[in-house]
Amino acid sequence: MKKLVLTGAAGRLGSYLREPLSQLCDEFVSSDIADNVSNLAQNETYVKADITDLDAMTTLLEGADMVVHFGAVGDEAPMDVLWGPNFYGAYTVWEAAYRNKLRRVVYASSIHAVGMHKKTDFIGIDAPHKPDTFYGLAKCFAEDLASLYWDKRGLESVCMRILSCAQPTNSRAVGTWLSYDDLIHMVERAINTPITGFSVVYGVSNNDRAPVDNAKAQHLGYRPKDNGEQFAAEIYSTDGPLDPHDPANTHHGGPFAAVELGNSGMAHLNLDTDDTGKH
Fold first, then answer.
1. Based on the structure, what is the number of domains in the chain?
2. pLDDT value for 48
3. What confidence score (pLDDT) does residue 118 get?
4. N or C: which end of the chain has fewer CB within 10 A?
5. Which residues cross the membrane (predicted)?
6. Is residue 45 part of a domain?
7. Residues spanned by the domain of 255
8. pTM over 0.90
């Protein structure tokens, strides 16, 4: 394609995506609120822009074919913290995409949009929204916004409900792991699938214990290759028996399902200090 835009480019997952996405287009524009990013690709331009600024987003997306939207606060927080970047920021991206006649928005949604479903319920992409936090509620809002803009304005979207895109360090991650290679593969398929309409897909690797079903997202051609089972024996022996009555163990949202609204869920994920991002 001619021009592709990535928001949230200075974040951990955005940083992984920059190089592969630059190979899919003639002109690649990465954006975030950071002053700059390093190691720009030959065809990459970095633009500092705030996703809560509709005019800035409209300018950013001018002439683009698609936008990959990863910009947001990446953890549970009080509503007044999330309202701008996670709620209104989603609106500005879709509205700017519509005003610029983009074909598609590829969105980093999250398992937390359905995080209060029980893990023993093998949910599909059509599971009703059941957010576990204000953060998850923002993902529900953006998914519904995506659906609305497709139904009323013909703007395609792929909403990727990412589970755990970080090195597995806990029992939950054996099933919810999304490897970085599979993340890149999923985003590429969300971009290059000819027709998507409004689509939802779970961002999870080919794990033996994956707790979600992508059967109704087969049209995207997302075929993950990595498997979290390789971590099972060591992690399970370290964690020991889990409390079967703790919502952090029994619900799709993990610790996000157990924390009080407005309190960090990330703080309970036991992630490596050098690998702390999650959507």
1. 1
2. 98
3. 97
4. N
5. none
6. yes
7. 3-268
8. yes
